[in-house]
Design brief:
- The chain is α+β, with helices and mostly antiparallel strands and 406 residues long.
- The chain has helices at 89-118, 120-127, 129-132, 140-149, 158-173, 178-190, 199-208, 216-224, 230-239, 244-247, 251-264, 268-290, 355-363, 365-374, 388-395; strands spanning 2-6, 11-16, 23-26, 30-38, 44-48, 51-55, 68-73, 84-86, 210-211, 294-297, 300-301, 305-317, 320-331, 334-343, 346-352, 378-385.
- The strands form four sheets. It has a six-stranded mixed β-sheet, with helices on both faces. Strands 6-5-4-7-8 form a five-stranded antiparallel β-sheet, with no helix packed on it.
- Helix 1 (89-118) runs antiparallel to helix 4 (140-149), helix 1 packs parallel to helix 5 and helix 7 (199-208) runs antiparallel to helix 11.
- The chain is globular, with a radius of gyration of 25 Å.
Length: 406
């Protein structure tokens, strides 16, 4: 049984059977649907956003099982029926051309943004006098951020988002990591003749870095203090003044304090390095907003690991809670990526990396299962994939929701 609810904004919410998450339809929107089955009754089973609906054709349509079609949500009929009009061939071609153009434009702009914020070449351009002179009142890189946040990323097909995210991860792997920049800043301030200026801030920076033998609680705290969630913590502090103390340990606050102190003493090299890290934190915030997830760097100080990034998201599907973490580690000249997904209370892990790395991980698979068991957790499965794209497809960007509690 399907229950239909229309809210004040005109969005149609379809609640199917006992599922708590509705299928949302907006009058005038165009949906991409897969023909799952053509029933003997003449009804058609269609799949929209991983949800299946039964539709009753009003006339004979040249459709086959497995076809992909575009449907336009028309105005409701007096009896409450929701008409879904199949776009004609010419309309479909026009739509696909528009989608391709939008996708290319968005991909180009996001990639240029990532390159400008996270690569050495981009940082040199941003710090150049010519770039700074473009605007006197506002850093020019903020214009890049505004441009990205205004892009209609929701119009990009999910397969293209996977390709784009792969390019982003590749850029991270081939650029100096945020972790390395933090270490360089620590060395800068600790080697200054007037290092006492930064003594307290240097200690806070060191506290953010986590070594391999430290408890997991410290890693969690370090990730939450990586600067990306500062605005969220500030909003919470307005209603809970006790939380103001924790804000002092946030990386963004520390870097702003260092920048202010360094500027007052003419230490431009310290200012440049601190602002480079601040720009990268802004970059992670933009990625989090763009992909409706939580992106940041991994503040892990391990001898073998040169850098890493973490992305987190949670969502509901068919009444189940999904929490997924995507991690990429740069280990010398190789990268290792893996996804850990918790579905209700069961965990599933998938790895992607060089064949020799996969063999090493496989040799420790039983140890991994035992560690989960010792912690009272269920490891539902371990999977190994050759290409990182397969991990990104599993991560399923399209269904993500920002869901991080500080």
């Amino acid at each position: 049984m399907i229950q239909q609810v229309i809210d004040q904004s005109g969005i149609i919410h379809l609640f199917k059977a006992k599922q708590t998450e509705p299928i949302k339809l907006i009058i005038g929107e165009i949906l991409k649907a897969e023909i799952m089955d053509i029933l003997p009754t003449g009804n058609i089973q269609i799949k929209i956003d991983n949800r299946i609906l039964n539709a009753q054709p009003q006339r004979q349509l040249p459709l086959n099982k497995g076809d992909t079609v575009y449907l336009k949500v028309e105005k409701l009929l007096p009896d409450g029926t929701i008409p879904l009009r199949v776009l004609s061939t010419s309309e479909t071609l026009q739509l696909e051309k528009a989608i391709a153009n939008i996708t290319q434009e968005i991909s180009d702009k996001i990639f240029r943004f990532i390159e400008a914020i996270f690569t050495d070449k981009g940082q040199q351009v941003i710090q150049s006098k010519q770039f700074s002179a473009l605007q006197h009142d506002e850093p020019s890189y903020l214009n890049l951020i505004k441009a990205i946040l205004s892009l209609p990323v929701e119009d990009v097909p999910n397969t293209e988002k996977v390709t784009l995210l792969k390019k982003i991860m590749a850029t991270f792997s081939n650029s100096s990591s945020t972790l390395e920049s933090i270490k360089e800043l620590i060395n800068l301030v600790e080697n200054k003749s007037n290092q006492s200026l930064f003594k307290g801030q240097s200690a806070l920076l060191n506290a953010i870095l986590v070594s391999s033998d430290e408890p997991v609680e410290k890693l969690k705290k370090a990730v939450l203090n990586s600067g990306v969630l500062l605005e969220t913590k500030l909003k919470q502090a307005l209603s809970d003044p006790v939380k103001i103390e924790s804000i002092k340990e946030d990386l963004k606050v520390i870097l702003n304090n260092i920048t202010t102190e360094a500027k007052s003493h003419g230490l431009q090299d310290v200012v440049d390095k601190a602002q480079q890290i601040l720009r990268q934190i802004d970059g992670y915030q933009v990625l989090s907003k763009t992909f409706q997830s939580f992106f940041t760097f991994l503040p892990i100080f391990w001898k073998e690991v040169e850098g890493g990034n973490i992305a987190f998201k949670s969502f509901k599907r068919q009444g189940k809670d999904y929490h997924t973490v995507f991690i990429t580690l740069q280990i010398k000249e190789e990268s290792l990526s893996f996804i850990i997904t918790m579905i209700n209370r069961s965990f599933f892990v998938s790895f992607s990396g060089a064949p020799e790395t996969m063999q090493v991980i496989k040799s420790y698979e039983n140890d991994l299962k035992q560690r989960f068991q010792q912690q009272g957790m269920i490891l539902g499965g371990v999977n190994y994939v050759e290409k990182v794209e397969e991990l990104l497809k599993q991560w399923n960007i399209k269904d993500g929701l920002i869901s991080v509690t500080v």
